[in-house]
Design a protein that fits this description.
The protein has two helices and four strands. By secondary structure, the chain is mostly helical. It has one domain. It is elongated, with a radius of gyration of 26 Å. It has a two-stranded antiparallel sheet. Strands 3-4 form a two-stranded antiparallel sheet. A hairpin with an 8-residue loop joins strand 1 and strand 2.
Length: 159
């Protein structure tokens, strides 16, 4: 046989395309779920890091290492203070105490150019209730500004 051609028939190619599309339709939802799970783990990690720093600041205030006025709660006035540091009242040289190396960005916040990481979080004052958190003179807690809900069904604002 001279000139016998070898190759795929149109039916074989269609079967291959159908099989690949079935595999892709199963893989995309799994990839989206994995991406959301990664974002949620990052959110948990960031919230824990900031909350530990807030508690450390409060403890330093209670121990007298951070100066405060009598009418203040002992929590930092803003999140940036945790990164910038405050003078140590018990150190004769006044060396600063740092509570965070950097304020983590809310992983669910939209990427805005030039917006500081501390501005991506919503804050709750010590004077406000947990049901209706409001900003105030200090930062008692932080939460995500995202309106979405987690895989577990709990809104991100309540984490």
């Amino acid at each position: 046989m001279i000139g016998a051609q070898r190759g795929f028939t149109i039916v074989e190619m269609l079967v291959t395309v159908v099989l690949v599309s079935i595999l892709a339709s199963a893989a995309f939802p799994m990839a989206e779920l994995a991406y959301q799970r990664d974002k949620e783990q990052e959110l948990r990690r960031s919230l824990r890091e900031i909350r530990v720093a807030l508690d450390a600041y409060k403890q330093a205030t209670d121990e007298g290492r951070v100066m405060r006025k009598a009418d203040q709660s002992g929590y930092p006035p803003n999140l940036q203070v945790l990164q910038d540091g405050v003078p140590n009242a018990k150190d004769p040289d006044g060396a600063p105490i740092f509570f965070l190396r950097r304020v983590p960005r809310d992983p669910l916040a939209p990427k805005a150019d030039g917006q500081p990481a501390a501005a991506t979080w919503a804050t709750r004052s010590y004077a406000s209730s947990s049901v209706e958190p409001k900003e105030g003179d200090d930062v008692f807690d932080v939460y995500s500004r995202s309106a979405g809900s987690g895989i577990n069904g709990i809104p991100y604002r309540e984490w």
